[in-house]
Amino acid sequence: MSIQAETRYASSPQEARGWNTEQTRAALLIEQLFEQDGVRLVYSHYDRFITGGIMPVNKPVTLEPVDQLKAQYFLERRELGIINVGGAGMVTVDGEVFDIDFKEALYIGRGKKEVIFSSKNAGTPAKFYLNSTPAHTTYPTRRITKQDAEVVTLGALETANHRTINKLIVNSVLPTCQLQMGMTELKPGSVWNTMPAHTHDRRMEVYFYFEVPQGQSVCHFWGQPQETRHIWMQNDQAVISPSWSIHSGAGTSNYTFIWGMAGENLDYGDMDGCPITELR
Fold first, then answer.
1. Is the pLDDT confidence value at 1 over 80?
2. Which pLDDT value is given to residue 16?
3. Reduced 3-state DSSP string for 98-131
4. What predicted TM-score, i.e. pTM, was given to this entire model?
5. Could you count the other beta carbons within 10 Å of the beta carbon of residue 154?
6. Which residues have CB under 8 Å from 48's CB, separation 6+?
7. Which positions make up the signal peptide (predicted)?
8. Which of 5, 131, 135, 252 is the Cys-Cys partner for 216 at CB 3.0 to 4.6 Å?
């Protein structure tokens, strides 16, 4: 088993204003999250948010502590959210086994010492997408299906943003310390996400794009509302969004994305809207 963990540092709008394409991608884009029987993690200094991926194929994979945490075990001071974006799998938490199928989630509270990931079929391995944040207390571990989620449908085909938002790990579904995760599925013919765009000074966010058809891409928009930038992204890639930045995208096809947030509060609606006509 291999484990790779890198650190991404926080930046100000003034610094980011001068980035070229290569610098932007190096700072914000997470290009590879899944490797066979491996763990890949990115530790961001924005709210100490960890984004990661685990794809067990030939053997179970254990989530070990990394140097950035200076901890005896990964969840010593953290909570963890998992969404499976691959084949059927299992997550074993301190001996308790949870079946996690495609587009199902698992929340694991602080203090769990052993987390093991496995696939039910090596031919169609599970792909576990992870978000983790610091935690001040312990809440129960729980599996969340799409039937358990709070579901909201927004937008319209006429504005190319007809979408279903599945709120999976949010405080209206289960208690967490600060982590929130959900999944937005765009309808055929729709390509825009998070439009009208917004920022939220009180938390950061990470988007993970998947179900992007082969040969298609997503253009992710970021930056301050009056000075936006873009990043071209492919399937199974994630992008870090600072609290001062918008986070929106348009694809050359419809797609699905997972949003993960952390910060000062758990109010899903806490955002500062940016009128479409005022974006620059």
1. no
2. 95
3. EEECCCCEEEECCCCCCEEEEECCCCCCCCEEEE
4. 0.97
5. 10
6. 133, 134, 262
7. none
8. 252
Q: Dmax of the chain from CA atoms? A: 53
Centroid of chain to Cα 236: 11
DSSP labels for the chain? -EEEEEEE----HHHHTT--HHHHHHHHEE-----BTEEEEEEESSTT-EEEEEB-SSS-EE----GGG--SSTTSSEEEEEEE-SS-EEEEETTEEEEE-TT-EEEE-TT---EEEEES-TTS---EEEEEEE-SS----EEE-TTTSEEEEE--GGGT--EEEEEEESTTTS--SS-EEEEEEEPTT--EES-S-EE-TTEEEEEEEE-PPTT--EEEEEEETTEEEEEEE-TTEEEEE-TTSEEEEEESS--EEEEEEEES---TT--EE--GGG--
- Rounded to 5 degrees, φ, ψ at 64 are -95, 155
Please check if 76 is assigned to a binding site: no
254 with 193: CB under 8 angstroms? no
Structural domain for 97, as ranges:
2-278
Place of tokens 């930046």: 11
Domain count along the chain: 1
As a whole number of angstroms, the distance between CA 211 and CA 213 comes to: 6
What does the alpha-carbon distance between residue 57 and residue 37 come to, in Å, rounded to a whole number? 6
Task: Reply yes or no on whether the pLDDT at 160 is more than 90.
Answer: yes
Q: Are 265 and 203 in contact (CB under 8 A)?
A: yes
Q: What is the dihedral sign for C-alpha 44, 48, 51, 54?
A: positive
Q: Which two tokens stand for residue 108?
A: 């694991």
- Hey, how many other C-beta atoms are within 10 angstroms of the C-beta on 170? 19
Determine whether the annotation assigns residue 198 to a binding site: yes
Cα angle vertex 191, ends 104, 44, to 5°? 55
CATH of the domain at 257: 2.60.120.10
Residue 11, both tokens: 């930046």
